Amino acid sequence: MGVTDTGRTMVLTLNAGSSSVKFAVYGGGEGQARLVSGMLEGVETSPRLSAQDADGKVLVDRQCSLTGDSDPHLAAIDLLMGWIDSHLGLDALAGVGHRVVHGGPDFHLPIRVDARTLGEMERLMPFDPLHLPACLGPIRALLTAHPDLPQIACFDTAFHAGMPDAARRLALPRRYDAAGVRRYGFHGLSYEYIAAWLSAAYPDLARGRVLAAHIGNGASLCAMQVGRSVATTMGFSVLDGLVMGTRPGALDPAVLLYMMRQEGLGADDIEKTLYHESGLLGVSGVSSDMRTLRQRENEPDVREALDLCIHRFTEQAGAMIAAMGGVDGIVFTGGVGEHDAAFRAEACARLAFLGVQLADEANLARREVISAAESRVRVLVRAADEEATIHRHVRDCLGDHAKRNAG
Question: What positions constitute the catalytic site (predicted)?
Answer without folding.
Answer: 156 (proton donor/acceptor)
